[in-house]
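Worked problem 6 (solution included).
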Amino acid sequence: MHYGGWFQYMRSGDEKPKVTRQLLLRVLTYARGYWWHIAGMLATILLTTGLSLLTPLIFRNMIDVVLPAKDVNRLVLLGVALLFIPALTGGINVIQRRLNATVGEGVIYDLRSTLFSQLQRMSLRFFTNTKSGELMSRLNNDVVGAQNAISNTIVNIVTNLIEAIALLAVMLTLEWRLTLISILILPLFIIAAQRLGVVLRDIARKAMDMNAQMNAHMGETLNIGGALLVKLFGRAFEEEQRFRERAAGVRDIGIRRAVVGSSFFVIFGLITAVGTALVYGLGGWYVIQGSFTVGTIVAFGSYLGNLYGTLQGLAGAPVEFSTSMVSFERVFEIIDLPHDIVEKKDALVLTNAQGELAFENINFKYAVNENTMLKEVKRYGSMADVTAVMSLTEKPKGKNGMKDAESIVGEADPKSQAREVALEGVSFTAAPGQLIALVGPSGAGKTTLTYLIPRLYDPTSGVIRIDGHDLRDVTLDSLAAAIGMVTQETHLFHDTIRTNLTYAKMDATQAEIESAARAANIHDFVMGLPDTYDTIVGERGYRLSGGEKQRVALARVILKNPRILVLDEATSSLDSESESLIQDALKRVMAGRTSIVIAHRLSTILAADLILVMDRGKIVERGTHDELLATGGLYSQLYETQFRGERV
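Solution. The predicted structure is:
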């Protein structure tokens, strides 16, 4: 007997999916490329259904005809048939499984490819307001759930429907009265399944949530950062106790789930037994009366067990199908999201960029458009839904439990920099080859300004031009090729140094890689490693020091060879040797390029052709070092507090 539909109902949570005609038509488009495979599956279903009907008839013939007649030859033939039918059925099932897997895996591939391509075109705003765990769930859980609707759910519904019709037809031909009695107990199935399904669903939710809590705790304490923190504070014993509590909860709910699940099947077994007892009791009476043969009642009993299984599957099919549609809706939600950063159809391919950059009255606000964001989803058993992992307190109200981007701007100094508008009336021009230094208090808008240059965001109003062209008129790929950016928080892939470097230029030769590494003062260090450029840097480059990571990032941007360089020259957390190496590398990197630098060192500021002093999202002062000192304004204050003590 099959209870999958009711267990699917048990897992469906609070979702109340609406299966619309438009949704169904869109779902079917993903099956369009697999029509022949689906037709083949239907053919195999018909064949296996027909074969399954033969075995009880063989038993009836054997009992009613062959054995009383003592026909040995016919007995041998029937015995061979009983061997041949399951062998043939097994072969057909293998073919059906191959067809099913081809459809299922193909749909997964199509959906994942479409989803990933869509996510690659989403703006940075989308990723700063969306949990990565939710994206992984959409790409994995929901895609698999959507695939299940096509390759399993629909196939199971069709299979059960065909089997139920065929079984009822054969049973009616055998004895219509017994068939009616068999169907009469179906309401008992439905009532029992609904009530027990609710209980099992609630237990399953708790079990999944407890598992999520346990897994989230492991994720927090067993990664490199968490393990280091546990050791530094000597909290190994406390974490062991905390883990045991969570593991004990998983154990206890697992035991309860097993007991209730067993009761679930016992009750269904009893209901089935009632139907079977009625059929055999009445059938036996018919046998005694001489209107029914022993072989017929044996065959009827075999059909009865199959019928209950198929009817049970059909009873749960609507819930199973509609639940699968929820997964499709979540997948389509991402596919249908509009793009913040849109490339024009006739966009210009920027070639031979000169590096002139102009900001014309730029205003920018970190406004979040709900239409371009994902709806929050309650996922039972998802680690991403466990917000307070250690204390297990409730997550705060609001979208994804996150602050809006506006409130983050200026958070480092809320008294002076907190505001709604990130940039206001920003205008300046960087001529080809010029070095523009951005200085100002933390939260003044310097990083936001640099994010607008490669179109990570688009300005709310105003125009940014590169070589006289509006950034929005240029293709995104050619714009990316013209701009190189090194952020303060350097990201390296968990891969080799070579792979991280060639990410900037996939076809770079070894000579080009080494030349870029020498320019960034990292080549000698790399050659001193056991595996040189094939050394794995670890997750986020954790096996390298801060200075080493920054120099790898500089080498990567040198290898890209962009005309415009945008970088956050943060060196405050580095030792003097690393800082000296990076400063020396920066001189080589910026030579001959248009450079927009968030400056933290006096040497960079003194070398700048133009210094832009920012405060509360505005450029409040501009000029050279000497000119700005003479005004006695904000730059003069910053110089006294941050830069004056440096030796150049």
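Discussion: The longest strand covers residues 357-364.
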